[in-house]
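notes to self, project folder thing:

trying the whole complex as one job this time. last attempt i did each chain seperately and stitching them together was a nightmare. two parts in total, labels are on each line so i dont mix them up again. if this works i'll redo the older ones the same way
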Amino acid sequence: MAQFILHKGTERGHANHGWLDAHHTFSFASYYDPQNMHFGVLRVLNDDSIDGGMGFGTHPHDNMEIITIPLEGALAHKDSLGTSSVIQHGDIQVMSAGTGVKHSEFNANPDQKVKLLQIWLYPNKKNVEPRYGQITLDIAERHNNFQQILSPNPDDAGVWIHQDAWFSLGKFDQGFETEYNIRKKGNGVYAFVIKGEVTIEGHDLGTRDGLGIWDTDTISFKANSPDAEVLLMDIPMN
Amino acid sequence: MKQLTILYIGRDAEITETMHRLLNARAEWKGLTTCVDADALSVCKTEPVDLVLLGNGIQPDEEQILRSGLISTRPGLKIIQHYGGGSGLLYGEIMSAMSN
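result (full assembly):
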């Protein structure tokens, strides 16, 4: 029988640093809830809004798969691998930190906010060679469809990571219904509502709500408002 | 409150330097850091280490030897993997480890 955990958007950890307004689904930085550390291999789901010209100075990562999804605006990225790039809405960025990588992330625009989701997954292999990737997707393909944006396979759609995980983004018309089939037996799904109102497996969710589901193979989905946007993260539970 | 002595071991000098700064930024923690396993074992003999954080670049065979050496020096010592990310994960990792 399917099991669930609901994280209401309004009950997430919150830190407003002035230049950075951050909401943390799981324990992060000064937000610590020992009962809310992770969902399977999903360790971090941060919902950040960064003021113009501001950002995170150079800092290190290791042994973590880091996925950044810009929702509005543009984010400038520089790292110790020699990458210098800007990502914006429609792009997906991935970094396998592996043995260690340093990077900085700044709002690329001086006069408008950048809003983004940053997601950290534990990898299935430690100490891999650090790697950076980004891809621009056709947003039209996610209309009434869960568009795959990430997988474990370099030859599959979207970016790839060192984990048996599949991410999908969808934007749905009101009343649209579908099912999502979990990609690997034993995986769970963490659904995060970027915008709008939806029902997932009988649970009514609103903007920025999150629902973790496991011990099931299929998930029912219905959009209850126009232009509802949802991110599905299909991930190992161990 | 007792000050925790936390030893970080990782292979990247710059990351290790950052960890030293982060661990010593809180009054309740005393941070010791090194990139060298032999130094880590020496530190463990002379300092009252409560927790070891294993950082980046430590290969499985090195980790096995390191864990064995640390535990033989301080039986019951808590040793956990640290996953980087600046201050993002650090507090939660330490609090979780020490509450177990």
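what i see at first glance: Chain A touches chain B at residues 27-30, 32, 34, 37, 43-44, 59-64, 97-100, 102, 120, 122, 126-127 (CB under 8 Å).
need to look closer tmrw
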